[in-house]
Amino acid sequence: MKGRGDGGGTAGTFRIAEGRLGDEPTVTVSAPDGQARATLALRGATLLSWQVARGAPGQLTDSTDRTELTELTDGYRDEAELLSQDGVRAGLLAPFPNRVADGRYHHGGHGHDLLPGVVGDRLIYHGFAREAPFRIVEATATADSARLLLRSTSIRPGRYPGYPFALDLDVEYTIGRRELGIGIRARNVGGTTAPYASGWHPYFTLSRPRPIDDLVLQIPADTLIRTDASLIPLPGKEALLPLDRCPDLDFRTPRRLGDAVIDACFADLAPGPDGRTETVLSDPATGAELRVWQHGGYMHVFTGDTLARDRRASIALEPVETTTDAFNRPEHAAALSLEPGRQREFRFGVTYLHAYLP
Fold first, then answer.
1. Whole-structure pTM over 0.90, yes or no?
2. How many CB atoms within 10 Å of residue 230?
3. How far apart are CA 82 and CA 34, in angstroms?
């Protein structure tokens, strides 16, 4: 495999090594100077850990400083957590992000049931990719970064109930010393148009062991997506609430999270000069800052209040292509449709900055 290493590699370049989380295969990328390390599980192409040195680049003075890394994500800690998918920690969301109401939708004149035979609790969310098997098809490393290309061909007719479409998924990770970039690319390899959208469900931690309450959040969004009690958006334009009318969830100006309980989608994101939208999470106590960037789409925020472990120890900042229940919303039909032979990509990532406070 091109560029893949086993803990070694060319001196002065990023290193790529295979490993295991229990019986689950993993791959770890390490910077040559010890300033960054990321570990992925091949199941779901799932980011398990992203660690970055807190010292200022170019100002590290000894080997101890060079290996003092801080964990920036709150991922699965062991094989059991990965298999349980509890909290969908850093899950890649495809072919749909978030929920599909009642597990049912219509597409191409046909009704589809994602939970056939299930009565009662028909909650389904975040697609199938997060549990799909991926394999590394390309791995390259330079002095500045490493690139991993992972592929899954598991989405096929008959494999997942209610989704009779064929997709190849490529996930590209680019890992540098201070930035992690991800691209999800889907190609329709079937004979019919498929409904498709993607996203990412990472949890970020800047304040551990403190809760997230003292962190400061900024979201460059003008609109909140209003939902019912099941977190399904209200019909049509009823779902669109200008944030001027919702001051409790207006984070256009940076503000402390406090005890806010959030599980909400933000729309009408304002891009910066480079075309990327940036949602900013910062810790005033340390000067640390994370900038979650994306090209288009929406930002879903979840403060982790219902997690099975470590509630409010981290916050989910989720770049998504579409709103919740997009499969049942006519206004999303054109954006969702992926025609045979066509492909679509959604790119996003996160940058770590530090003010180097004394």
1. yes
2. 11
3. 26
